[in-house]
Amino acid sequence: MAEEITTTEEKTVDKDIAALLTSPPKRAPEPTPELTGKIVKPKIVQGAAAHYKPHVAKPEIQEKLGFPGTLVENWQEAAVAKMRELLGKYKSLQVYMDICVRCGSCTDKCQYFLSTRDPKNMPAGRAELFRQVYRKYFTTEGKIFGKLAGAVDFDLSLLAEWYSYFHQCSQCRRCSLYCPYGIDTAEISMAAREIMDSIGLGQKYTNEIIGKVHELGNNLGMNEAALRNAIEFVEEEIEEDTGVPVKLPINEEDAEVLLVTPSADFFATPHLESLVGYAKVFHQAGINWTLSTTAAEAGNFGMFVGSYYHMQKIASRIKQAIEELRPKRLVVGECGHAWRVAYAFWNTLIGPFDMLNQKYPRPQHICEFTLDLINRGALKIDKSANDEFVVTFHDSCNVARATRMGDKPGGQFDIPRELIKAVTNKYVDMEYDTIRERTFCCGGGGGLLTDELIDVRVKGAMPRMQALHNVMETHGVNFMALICAICKAQFTKIMPKYGIPMEVAGGVHQLVGRAIVLGAKE
Amino acid sequence: MSGLTLLYTLFAYVAIAVFLVGFLARIWKYATTPSPLKIPLTPAPVNSVGVVYRMVQEVGFFKSLFYSNRIIWIGGYLMHIALLITIVKHLRFFFKTTPAALAWITSFEIYVGFIFFGALAFLFLMRLVIDRTYYLSLMQDYVLLIFLMLIAATGILTKYYVRTDIIKVKQFVMGLVQFRPEAIPGDPIFIIHFTLVLLLLIYFPFSKLMHSGGIFFSPTRNQVDDAREVRHVTPWAVKG
Description:
The complex is a heterodimer of chains A (522) and B (240).
Chain A: H1 2-21, H2 59-64, H3 75-89, H4 91-99, H5 111-116, H6 123-138, H7 140-145, H8 156-165, H9 174-178, H10 185-198, H11 204-216, H12 224-242, E1 257-260, H13 264-267, H14 271-285, E2 289-290, H15 308-325, E3 329-332, H16 336-350, E4 364-365, H17 366-375, E5 391-393, H18 397-402, H19 411-423, H20 454-460, H21 462-475, E6 479-482, H22 485-494, E7 505-507, H23 508-515
Parallel strand pairs in A: 1-2, 1-3, 3-4, 5-6, 6-7
Chain B: H1 3-32, H2 48-61, H3 63-68, H4 70-90, H5 100-106, H6 112-129, H7 131-136, H8 139-161, H9 166-177, H10 188-203, H11 211-214, H12 219-222
Helix pairs in contact in B: 1-10, 4-6, 6-8, 8-10
């Protein structure tokens, strides 16, 4: 009898593990939220988002990154040990585990909660999944009072919830802005993903891309020949369009500027238009610049999975490119999380940048770079080239809440706006609660930009879509300028579902590129 | 010395010791755990003077909460201010001759205990009424509020209704401070009040009340936004 019970239990566990590791079933797309122009605080619906989860990484993807191929046998023990390690390594995690008072301030701030209504998508609700385990194994309160005090055994069903809900967080930090203690759910979701990776439960999309960038130097997994082809194609296009032979130099030694940009800029639409814009800026300003095949990727998905090791390994390619090519300045293209890693982490990960010219920020954002040139009169601009557009600007979450441009706090909001206004005649801001540091994530950040999470992405974009819809209705806005490769990919994909044409989304340097007058300088 | 005095003298010392050691141990943990990366929530101050100003705004005015949720801010802010004033007023029990400034502050009758109780009751109600916080609330959230409300209620009783002899209270407290125990006032309401406070002190370091010390160690709020200018390095994060 006793034996029988054990077998049934084992079978259930096996079944649970199998369910955890299988891909989400294919479902018909869920209905897109209605565009009302309003962002309302919904009543909670428990479990409303429990069925979302990304594909689990296959063993070969995991093992390439040094993670166990599949869920290890003693996963619970290993996860608790990893949690102990991370609590000792990250002040943020340790402090944020302890000091939440569940005041409710964050509960109506996350785009995924506002759209899915699932309380586990409230920042404190999401973090609670982590805290339940923390209390159980690391607090006196939890050890004495157990479940009564919110301490929960780390079992398979909780692990399944971790996998689902920590992949419904885009690490955009909006919750941290509104938390009285600055508790940052991004830190908690990064730690959760790092723990899951360490026990063999990885997310396919992100980990596959980390593998690609280690192998080939960019997220798209293209080799040097493909990259050179793509760039040649861009050069031909520009010449066809303008009659001016604008070059995109690759691996040029001793150039003034090394441009590191997300690899999507070389292939994807509308990213490519921004690449054209950068090239025209360099060309017209007469600044000697280069791209690098070693550092053909500004993106760094190591951050999404919380792995310091992989983030540093990916970033080390930039350092290698600097050593190979000896540029004097380092400029980063339009990408939100990449700018966070570049601005806030590169100096720690691969610094100091003593070999670069100290007169300029190291690294410098392309918007800082271009606006500076315009302000100094180095570029001839014809704003009327953008007269068909009424432009608004979407502050990318990582740029807005984790970085800066220029010398002053808030430069990350003002500099892109000044740049847009310098190349267009018609500019309108979206609603107060959805811009600057209060901006919403596009819905596809933090490793969520994958097809099987499309319903989460469509919903996550809801607040931004409402605000955009408003300015489209009231001000005739027909262009939302972006400075992030993920925002661009996300919006062009999901906007049509809201009935908004994908052409409404485009890069800031797309506008810059259109307005630059090429040719001999006066 | 009566058995009751002995019991409460020991209880008080144990509670204070647990509080101090526990609190400082937690703070030590927060202070010594490294922050490998720069993660200030931007826009952030670009120098340490700015960080102090940011902290003052957060700790002194609950700025983030103010801009986030005005209702919770009102309840929370009133509660904390009332608590602060109450603690300051209680300091007079710890001085042989009350300092003039303290006496002056204490001389205002602003019914702060009632404000404290009212704010706590309001926060309790909000927890129940808002479906999002009702979902989040754990046993300890309610227990703490009830605990504080009981402390407030018994305090109010000793002050306005079943008046306790505060000269005797002062003698007892001074005795504790000077390590020569005096008799505890036998007034049951006072004893309940005092017991609850000691229990709260013991629970403090193990609870969410650590937000009081923890906020100062929150990296998103206490870091300077200077990642490009100053290389931030912590021991484990340096590549070996």
